[in-house]
Amino acid sequence: MAEAKTDVLIIGAGPAGLMLANWLSKTGVSARIIDRRPTKITVGHADGFQCRTIEVFQSFGIAHRVIAEGNELTEVVFYNPDDNGNLVRTARIPDTEPGTSRFRHVVLSQARVERFLLDNMKINNGLIVERAVEPQSLSIDNAVIDCLDAYPVTVIVRHLPQDNVSEDEAAITGGPESGLYRSNMFADDAEDAIPQNRQQAGQTETIRAKYVVGCDGARSWTRKQIGYELEGENSSAYWGVMDARILTNFPDIRLKVAIHSASSGSILIIPRERDLVRFYIQMGTIEPGQQIDRHALTHTSIIEKAKAIMAPYTLECPEIEWWSVYVIGQRLCKQVSLCDRVFIAGDAFHTHSPKAGQGMNVSMMDSYNLGWKLSAVIKGVADRCLLDTYRSERVEVAQQLIDFDRKFSGLFSGKPAVAEQAGISVKDFRNLWLKSGKWTSGTAIQYAPSLLVAASSAEKELLAANIHIGSHFESQIVVCIADAHPVHLGDRLISDGRWRLILFAGKLTQQAQRSRYEKLCAELVSTRSPIKQYHVGQDVDSFIEVLTVVSSERSAIDMTEYPDITRPACGPHGYRKYNTIFADEVSYHDGGGQAYQGYGVDAEGPGAAVLIRPDQHVADILPFDACVSRLSAFFTPFIRQVCQ
Ligand code: FAD
């Protein structure tokens, strides 16, 4: 039997697996990613990308592709029955509250976003998905579990025969006989739609890995191997979902619409890319052990239900790109790793209803949380204790989202009376939607204090009142000192595994403040500074990159007068970076000038340093005079000294 070694074996190449593969390929960690499907999906599945997910895509350099192909959502309208039972438009609200994020919700087929992630992995380090490969057994050698260089997890995989038909594909699409789901394929997906030419078909292989991550969906094989189960709701709702180009006299078909009809149920309508429209309709619920009758549920029954809910508006669906009926409950597995060697991520440890558009987004955010940590441990930068924060951070998030989803989904369940029974009047629906904006945009996540998140304090709140430790760092427009370009500060936080220290340096035209800033910069390159202690090779910014934002005028101080660490020499020829120092002022064309106010930092004050994790979550807020000592205290428990 063939044998191979890899640092990380990812099982499952859905959104969670591909997000992890992106991190590992970007940070240069050796990985393999297998999926039992013979081909990539090409249409359908999930379609809603939250603002926070787009921010993460931006950090990998692929947000522009998602935005260019997708449809950005702008407004949500609500229809409810009037006193006579006739549907009337009852409210209009923005899809996301202005100011939530620099990005908006984008809807686009999951298949396209998988395309962009796949392309990125290939560009990063040539990583590709090995398809039609299924794991058969998993074992762990406990004797070497704590040994950093060991490969304690052994997975035997089987390269499936060429004609294997994936069970998932058949289950999720309603079966190949529908014949609908392979239409409208994009040219750049053509290669992936053909099963790979696999010389190993039919053979088995032993893969020894340092870490295994099961991103293999709700029926996760990996989860079963490590003996865990999803727990939660006993009954599950089943949903009819359809992507179609339609004929209708409904006036709001290009908006996101929630309709509660008087007696025919509810529908969620999403205006998609390429003039498609997605319909979500809850068709019913099933009890444990019960199976849905897939033959009775066809695209015709979905359309009939949609017509009844939307009446008296008309609906014809001459072009259906994809449809499906799928069952989903709110379930959670609170254990997500075995010995911090085998992990599960995404639907493998939590499932949600589709109403709040959480599933795919949260799944990707799981592996986004795990990826940089695995990479830091494998590269010897961080201790293995870092990995436990994956459990503490993501299980908490999954639980919160399931609680939120349960409440939110009561509103969609069939007749208005059902929502009323859940204690939420349909009249309050709009208000709850508005209040839920932070959750549905993915920006509500705030990790609790831990090894990686310092506790908040009155002192820190005074330094930066609107920056919340544990939350992701929100973006403001600043102007680059060197080239006068307006820059979203969030765009500087690219996903490359580095930490960032943003120095809000204040008014450097005041001599006392300039001295304070220069003193800090000198300390940041002293031997007791984590920047110096933990950088790798000749680039001093390889572990922590320092960014500066001043409240003095951009033209007041030339960039060459800033301390070296703020625009460090990098690479073999010592080129200096230009895009590291910014001013909080109005740009010529694209706004700006509100960063200090937005972050709640005193523009005339003593300055504040904000430490940001590689996944853009704020780790700590530090005063200039204690910055280096507190940085040291923060990193010492989990960083292994790599540079003298
Ligand atoms: P999956 O997407 O299920 O991927 C798992 C992968 O693992 C698959 O490629 C599978 O082939 C592979 N695999 C499984 N078992 C094995 C095995 N034994 N060996 C090898 N490979 C294996 N979420 C949203 O956020 N927004 C939405 O709008 C939304 N709409 C949805 C609409 C539909 C119709 C459906 C079905 C789901 C929707 N979801 C939505 C949910 C979303 O699709 C999932 O939450 C998301 O895909 C989970 O990602 P994942 O990577 O964890 O798992």
TrEMBL record:
InterPro entries the record matches: FAD-bd (IPR002938), FAD/NAD-bd_sf (IPR036188), Phe_hydrox_C_dim_dom (IPR012941), PHOX_C_sf (IPR038220), RIFMO-like (IPR050641), Thioredoxin-like_sf (IPR036249)
One Gene Ontology molecular-function label: FAD binding
Keyword Flavoprotein found: yes
Alphabetized Gene3D superfamilies for the sequence: 3.40.30.20, D-Amino Acid Oxidase, subunit A, domain 2, FAD/NAD(P)-binding domain
Record-annotated FAD-binding domain positions: 5-141, 188-404
Keyword RNA-binding found: no
Residue ranges crossing the lipid bilayer per the database entry: none
Domain Phenol hydroxylase-like C-terminal dimerisation: 445-640
Entry keyword set: FAD, Flavoprotein, Oxidoreductase
Family stated for the protein in its record: Belongs to the PheA/TfdB FAD monooxygenase family.
PANTHER family attached to this UniProt entry: 2-MONOOXYGENASE, PUTATIVE (AFU_ORTHOLOGUE AFUA_1G13660)-RELATED, TRK SYSTEM POTASSIUM UPTAKE PROTEIN
Protein name: FAD-binding domain-containing protein
